[in-house]
Amino acid sequence: MNSLERLMAACDSKPVDRPPVWLMRQAGRYLPEYRKLRKLHEFWEMMRNPELAAEVTMQPLRRFGVDAAILFSDILIVLDAMGVEVRYKKGGPIIHPLINDESGLTRLETVDADKQFAYLAETIGRLAEQLHPQVGLIGFAGAPFTLASYLIQKGPSKNLTALKKLAAKRPEIYEEILERICDVVVDLLRLQARAGADLLQIFDTWSGKLNLEEYLQLAQPYSERVIERLADLKIPVTLYIRNASQLAKAAASTGCRVLSIDCSLPIGEARARLGDYLALQGNYDPARLKGDPAVIRQEVQAMIESVRGTGLIVNLGQGLTPDTPVAGVEAFVSAVKEWSQ
Fold it and tell me: What is the secondary structure of 220-240 as a DSSP string?
């Protein structure tokens, strides 16, 4: 069973020789080879240059032999395409202008995905040539709610006060913003699938700031709409959710084939709560990758044992950080490869 076959079987909860493994943000700043390249090129330049983006995407495949490559890109390319300025600073992205009224809506531009994301299609095409039919390729986008949180209030570092106020006092504006983002996200993900992505992942990071009632009103319906509009593609869609301890069941109801969860809920407990009708992805704490490699191996294999059976993609509860030691990632991947039924 090769890596692509293993990944697709796990998405469908079919038997596998071992669980597939990859890591969120596996291509990036913790790798010496990435840092070397980054000294020569700006972040946006690297994303928009198909040769550079493909190279960065392939770096962790060469080093660790993971079962899937995830496209080197960023969720905020959607807002950039909609005519919003996105700049990256040490404290996080700077979004200008913020959109929270009728005049703001008029500044949002119509997106021609084939034209504005052409560089992404070329990158995926290059990667598919290198990876297929042996290794899986994952495309992705931000969830409408998470993107809206950046667009309305620069991203909810502590809370979602401005977004919740807009949704309560001007629901028609909130709905219009989310619908416009939905359209672009769907077009972006469809383009990635046409170009050669085998699996699509939607990152809903900031919905973890919501309670269950708020999530069902403000976030879940829009993820569901995106997934419904991708159904004809017949390829798996993964939804990543923060605050899975209270939102997992609601997130699972979006129609995703795989639910990727953070560290707030042990994956064995998630399986017990949700049953086996959908695959799970996760959810080792990336902070623990700084520890003893022997301990990492034990903990990762115990995590796999807690789920047992099929329908598991081994991953992290959130993305790798720049200070993650390479040795920790090596131990994580090796633990999965060494596991046997």
Answer: HHHHHHHHHTTGGG-S-EEEE
Please, what are the domains in the chain? Answer: 3-338 (3.20.20.210)
Distance CA 145, CA 34 (A): 30
CA dihedral 245, 246, 247, 248 (to 10 degrees): 50
Active-site residues, by number, are 25, 29, 38, 74, 150
Q: Are the beta carbons of 201 and 139 closer than 8 angstroms?
A: yes
Comparing C-alpha atoms, which of 141, 121, 120 is closest to residue 239? 141
Buried b (16+ CB within 10 A) or exposed e, 314-326: bbbbbbbeeebee
Q: Whose structure tokens read 């042990």?
A: 266
**In 127-154, which positions are buried (b, 16+ CB within 10 angstroms) versus exposed (e)?**
bbeebeeebbbbbbbbbbbbbbbbbbbe
As a whole number of angstroms, the distance between CA 50 and CA 25 comes to 18
Residue 68 and residue 136: Cα distance in Å, rounded?
4
Greatest CA separation found in the chain?
Answer: 59
pLDDT in tens, 118-176: 999 999 999 999 999 999 999 999 999 999 999 998 776 678 999 999 999 999 999 99
Tokens 């493909």 map to which residue? 54
Is-contact 189 141, C-beta < 8 A? yes
Q: Residue 158: what pLDDT?
A: 74
DSSP 265: S
- β-pair partners for 259: 239, 280
CB-based burial, 237-248: b 16+ in 10 Å, e otherwise: bbbbbbbbbebb
Assign 45 to helix, strand or coil.
helix
Angstrom distance (rounded) from CA 273 to CA 277: 11
| Residues 260 and 201 sit within 8 Å (Cβ to Cβ) | yes
Q: What is the pLDDT of residue 156?
A: 65
Q: Which tokens sit at 320?
A: 């790798």
**Structural tokens at position 262:** 């953070």
Provide the strand spans (E) within the chain.
68-70, 85-89, 92-96, 136-142, 199-204, 237-241, 258-261, 279-284, 312-316
How does DSSP classify residue 319? Answer: P
